[in-house]
Design brief:
Layout lengths: L1 E2 L2 E13 L5 E13 L1 E6 L4 E6 L10 H13 L4 E7 L9 H16 L6 H11 L5 H4 L3 E4 L4 E4 L8 E6 L6 H6 L10 H7 L14 H7 L1 H12 L4 E4 L6 E5 L7 H6 L1 E6 L1
Parallel strand pairs: 5-6
Antiparallel strand pairs: 1-4, 2-3, 3-7, 4-6, 7-8, 9-11, 9-12, 10-11
Helix pairs in contact: 1-2, 2-3, 7-8
């Protein structure tokens, strides 16, 4: 069985307050984006997990795909499988690639082994993997709150827009990003901005709280955001805690040679 875990972007991201459990309450809108990894699962005599494409540092057993399999194996005594993950979504970019892989693995195993778990149950399992994983069970535009696990569907359709994603060589860890942010309530709630204002007006209201400190710390990110607006973006922003910057366009953008040579880049329609 093969599936294609996709990325997400954040349309706004407010860090509201720090919680007693050490996490933060946030507000954001997650929107799926069709840049994909490839995930294959087959029956096997013994468990095996292989990774190709973009290298993933660290212990393979800590990958969310492996953790997803182990979660379900514990409760449903699953047989052994061979899993192959081909990584296209860049790491530590704010695009949710690892969370997507984990969420899609749960959905695939549910279908492959006829477990008949509904989405609400899969959402609970996904929450055990990480804060962003439950979003990918549904994989549709969502307003998110809490530490990311509280989700409500929002009617938002960006069909007809093009998106350009640019990422420099630098990576930003979530820990680093939070060190530069002072939690506070936003002047304008994300939901009201998205519903009441056209995309071209978002740049004046829709904010990612990680962006200002990260663009100050890494001027290259600020330059990339300016480039997206120079190319005609109606809205541009850091996604998640970074380090990817995206722009929304009403026509397919043309990338200059220096961008294609020096940065991860992806252009597609939404």
């Amino acid at each position: 069985m093969i599936s294609f875990p996709n990325a997400k972007i954040n349309l706004g991201l407010n860090i509201i307050e720090k919680r007693s459990d050490g996490y933060h309450n946030i507000s954001s809108c997650f929107y799926p984006v069709p840049i994909n990894d490839v995930l294959e699962i087959n029956l096997s005599d013994k468990f095996d997990f292989k990774i190709s494409g973009t290298p993933i540092p660290g212990n393979k057993n800590e990958n969310l795909v492996v953790k997803a399999y182990k979660l379900l194996k514990k409760d449903f005594n699953l047989p052994e499988v061979a899993i192959h993950l081909h990584k296209n979504i860049p790491l530590e970019a704010g695009l949710g690639g690892g969370s997507s892989d984990g969420g899609f693995a749960l959905k695939m195993l549910n279908e492959f082994f006829d477990l008949y778990l509904d989405d609400s149950v899969l959402e609970d399992y996904a929450g055990m993997l990480g804060s962003d994983c439950p979003f990918f069970i549904y994989n549709e535009p969502m307003l998110v709150g809490g530490r990311g696990e509280e989700m409500n569907a929002i009617k938002l359709d960006l069909k007809g827009y093009y998106i350009c994603i640019l990422k420099p060589q630098l990576s930003i860890s979530t820990k680093e990003a939070y060190q530069g942010v002072k939690p506070s309530k936003p002047d304008y709630p994300i939901q009201s901005i998205i519903i009441s204002k056209p995309v071209v007006k978002w740049k004046n209201f829709l904010k990612n709280d990680f962006e200002a400190p990260m663009l100050k710390k890494y001027p290259e990110l600020s330059s990339l955001k300016d480039r997206l607006y120079d190319m005609g973006a109606e809205y541009a922003s850091l996604t998640g805690s970074g380090s990817a910057i995206y722009g929304l366009f009403n026509a397919e953008p043309v990338l200059h040679k220096d961008i294609t040579q020096n940065y991860f880049n992806w252009v597609g329609s939404l």
